[in-house]
Amino acid sequence: MSLFKRLQESDQAVESEPVPDEGSTARDEAPAQPTPPTANPSTAKTPTGLAAAQKAKAAPAKDLPNRRDPARDELRRRIHQNLIVEIGPSLYDADLNDDELRAKVLEQLQAAIAKERTPLSAADRAELIDEVSDDILGYGPIDPLLRDDDVSEIMCNGPDSIYVERSGKLTKDPITFVDEAHLRRIIDKIVGQVGRRIDEASPMCDARLPDGSRVNAVIAPLTIGGPFLTIRKFKADPLQVDDLIRFGTFDANAARFLQACVVGRLNMIVSGGTGTGKTTTLNVLSSFIPSDERVVTVEDAKELQLHQDHVLCLETRPPNIEGRGAVSIRDLVKNSLRMRPDRIVVGECRAGEALDMLQAMNTGHDGSLTTVHANTPRDTLSRLETLTLMAGFDLPVRAIREQMASAIDVIIQVARLRDGSRRLTHITEVQGMEGDVITLQDVFLFDFSAGVDDNGRYRGTLKPTGIRPKFAEKLTSEGIKLGPETFQTSGGGMGAS
Predict the structure, then answer these.
(1) DSSP 3-state of 262
(2) Burial class (CB in 10 A: 0-12, 13-18, 19+), 125
(3) In DSSP terms, which residues pair with 170 in a beta bridge?
(4) In this predicted structure, which of 14-18, 66-70, 156-160 has the lowest mean pLDDT?
(5) How does residue 76 score in pLDDT terms, banded at 50, 70 and 90?
(6) Most buried by CB count within 10 Å: which residue of 17, 143, 204, 329?
């Protein structure tokens, strides 16, 4: 049983006991007399004794702050440091596999605890072993959260405040770090594993865990209240198209349509806000790429999990301590054009690389994919226009729009709705130019008019609008035929060809 659970039970014991009034008995068998301030062991841990117990009774135990034992924290810190001194070199021994390293750490940990004169119960001893081994072999207190498949995001707002996302909803978790230095050690460990650095000269860092989970860390002097650590978890077994259909992100009909678009080498952009599932959608779309094509992926931190054989993954590099040697996404996109790719997949366009991506789409690299932060398909074009201007070239706006109209075939809009679910809300065709305006046509739309159920979840689904896209002819020329049922609305209407 964890220390936090034992403290909860202690608080509940206080709630179950009657608080003695003046002139009454504290227990049936005890005579009426004043109760000593520390007579109740469950309240002796708090500085205000009975008053604290009364205050605890007013609030649920789950909302109480996590209480630390300074002596226990000091013991944990001392054992941790001694263990690093004893087996530090072994942590980086390439000849030891994970099981052998864990066995060695646990053996040394048992010996270190045995040398301590601090009395520990069997439960506290086992819990201390788990905590220190997690610090050395894993990522400290957040290790159980990383192993929890229900947790999709972990947000450490300092050592005492940790929030997690489950099913699209944020909740505060009772676990905490010992202090700011403890959280900083975990950040340094994560960042160092992928060859990045974080210090006062470079206090922000994007990194990733070995499983591909996205990591962002910010430290002083930019933060107030301790280091900040945000982890966007990726499942060891990445979500497939069947999973998204089961979750209601889209239906089987829309999935077949998207697969036809990818196999038919249409240039596609996935747009959406932060945390809406753009990368997951991009990963699913990438799974439709035929295995005989050469694919080059470009990302800030590697997140895509393509299972084709012929995939080359490129990752950016931050500047060194002298401020030199940085390699940006734009540099990698330019270099990827010289690697004879059939397709280029860019994790996200957020600056001048948008111009290079448009150039690639217009110069024979059909079927390329990328993501952009935007709230609607129309906003996606506006944002791409702005990003293209960030490349530093004084290009006429019309020339940029013509490039976009020629390069982009499909925009897929992803949104996180109020019920916490992530849904595709638009699949939109980019039809071309009319004057100075790029014309768009929705092929699939989310049906918000269906309302919500008793649990607050949206009843609507992604439905065809009944309009057949112009690029259907291009797909036909590639040998891909979309039947009329693909675009048929629920009322049986058909769109014009």
Answers:
(1) helix
(2) middle
(3) 165
(4) 14-18
(5) low
(6) 329
* Eight-state DSSP code of residue 463: E
Domains located in the chain, CATH noted: 3-60 (no CATH), 70-232 (3.30.450.380), 241-487 (3.40.50.300)
Structure letter (DSSP) for residue 397: H
How does pLDDT run across 392-422, given as a tens digit for each residue? 888 899 999 999 999 999 999 999 998 888 9
Q: Of the candidates 262, 264, 267, which has an alpha carbon nearest to the alpha carbon of residue 286? A: 262
Cα–Cα dist 116/80, whole Å = 12
- CA pair distance 153, 156, nearest whole angstrom: 10
Spatial separation of the C-alpha atoms in residues 127 and 130, rounded to whole Å: 5
What burial class does residue 200 get, using C-beta atoms within 10 Å of its C-beta: 0-12 exposed, 13-18 middle, 19+ buried?
exposed
The Cα 273–Cα 412 span in angstroms is 12
Q: Classify each residue of 240-258 as buried b or exposed e, where b means 16 or more C-beta atoms within 10 Å of its C-beta.
A: ebeebeeebbbbebbbebb
pTM of the model: 0.69
Tokens of 75: 């013991």
Average pLDDT over residues 374-396: 92
Q: Indicate the length of the chain as a whole number.
A: 497
Measured distance CA(275)–CA(231) in Å, rounded: 12
CA–CA dist 203, 391 (Å, integer): 26
Bridge partners, 230 (sequence order): 155, 216
Residue 169: exposed, middle, or buried by beta-carbon count in 10 A (0-12, 13-18, 19+)? exposed
What is the C-alpha separation between 476 and 486, in angstroms, rounded?
14
